[in-house]
Design a protein that fits this description.
By secondary structure, this protein is of the alpha+beta class. The chain has four domains: 1-33; 41-114, no CATH class; 119-229, no CATH class; 244-361. The protein has helices at 16-32, 51-55, 81-87, 91-114, 119-135, 244-260; strands spanning 5-6, 12-13, 66-69, 75-78, 141-144, 151-165, 169-178, 181-195, 198-213, 216-221, 266-269, 276-284, 288-291, 297-305, 312-322, 325-340, 343-348, 358-361. Strands 11, 12, 13, 14, 15, 16, 17 and 18 form an eight-stranded antiparallel β-sheet that branches. A six-stranded antiparallel β-sheet has the order 5-6-7-8-9-10. Strands 1-2 form a two-stranded antiparallel ribbon. The chain is globular. The termini are far apart.
Length: 362
């Protein structure tokens, strides 16, 4: 038998009989390789759920074997050819129905979890947290004021009342006073929501603080107020168009979740200097705006540099509403603190008008 040899290009050559056998083997292997899989579920819209099913108010997972791509290149999956055919009879309207259903489902999932609890459970959790922290702090509740970094130590007076917003959580409004002056009263809000089967405190905010006027202390609401004081008696989560307070909620949830990874410090790389900033969240501004060209939401926030009292950064957040889920897409430094004439002032790097046409979100 003629031995295998190397040709002029260094490639291994085979006798004819071996070549025939090799080709046959390759054909057999090719027959055993399955056909190319459809679009990965993770790359498809709605996580690979059947978009026609969603438009009809049903969650149906697919393997994305049947798909359709819109003019923007977004891929949608279907449970069958018939489902795709039905959807494409009116893709615009059906897609909006699907998005509305997902948006409602998102709030509904929290609302459903809230059915296992009531405002009394939220109040019990908050009272326990206050007692625990006060016990470790000489009997007073310690609270860092994000506005100026002051470390408050307050005496607990009781819970005034608890507000409930379906789909978002419970909001106990708690009364405190300064132990050195009982007339210096505070109202502190606790945002409580279900997570992993149990209630958890999501955020603590000063709602009202004592302001001295004409020799006496007056309990005064801070500006801006926490986002949960904005909605009226409407039922959240069931409108296609997001409202300003919903965007504020998404921003604050995202910022707090990121800060929780670093013991309460929000770390942000300055896109201009490359420096990593250590920040503490203060509040979100009104109004919230929506960019006309791509529909993204745009919100401004205040953060204080850790370890300072009056070095305040204005940080902008871009939020997208994808399939009913509010997601932070970009974070950028808008204004930086600069020392001028002995005072720290915010100096803008750009104006929101530079981002293109937009409108205020009600």
């Amino acid at each position: 038998m003629k031995p295998d040899t190397l040709n002029l290009y260094g490639a291994l050559t085979f006798p004819r009989t071996k070549r025939v056998a090799l080709i046959g083997a390759l054909l057999v292997c090719a027959a055993l390789i399955p056909a190319r899989a459809g679009t990965p579920e993770a790359a498809a819209e709605f996580g690979g759920q059947c978009v026609e099913g969603l438009s009809q108010g049903r969650h149906i997972m697919t393997k994305c074997a049947v798909t359709w791509a819109d003019k923007d290149g977004k891929t949608y999956c279907f449970s069958s050819e018939d489902a795709r055919k039905s959807f494409l009879e009116n893709p615009g309207a059906n897609l909006q129905k699907a998005r509305d259903f997902i948006a409602a489902s998102s709030a509904d999932s929290t609302e459903k979890a809230m059915q296992n609890f009531d405002s009394g459970d939220a109040e019990t959790l908050v009272k326990g947290l206050i007692e625990e922290r006060a016990k470790a702090s000489g009997g007073l509740f310690p609270l860092g004021d994000p506005a100026d970094g002051t470390q408050l130590k307050l005496a607990f007076d009781g819970i005034d009342f608890t507000r409930t917003i379906d789909g978002y959580g419970f909001f106990p409004d708690v009364k405190f006073h300064d132990p050195q002056d009982a007339q210096k009263r505070y109202l502190i809000d606790f945002w409580v929501a279900p997570s992993d089967g149990q209630l958890k405190v999501q955020e603590i905010r000063i709602y009202k603080e004592p302001i001295k006027a004409e020799g006496s202390w007056t309990l005064t609401a801070r500006s801006p107020v926490p986002w949960w004081w904005i909605p009226a008696s409407e039922h959240p989560g069931h409108m296609a168009t997001k409202r300003g307070w919903e965007v504020m909620s998404a921003v604050e949830q995202g910022a707090l979740a990121e800060a929780a990874k670093n013991h309460g410090v929000f770390k942000l790389k300055d896109d201009k200097t490359g420096k990593v900033l250590d920040l503490e969240f203060i509040d979100t501004h009104l109004p919230v705006r929506q960019l006309d060209d791509n529909g993204h939401y745009f919100a401004c926030t205040d953060f204080r540099a850790v370890g300072t009292k009056d070095q305040i950064y204005d940080i902008d957040f871009w939020i997208t509403d994808k399939d009913g889920q509010m997601t932070i897409e970009q974070t950028r430094v808008h204004k930086v603190p600069e020392l001028k004439s002995g005072q720290w002032v915010q100096v803008p790097r750009y104006e929101w008008k530079d981002l293109g046409p937009s409108h205020v979100v009600p």
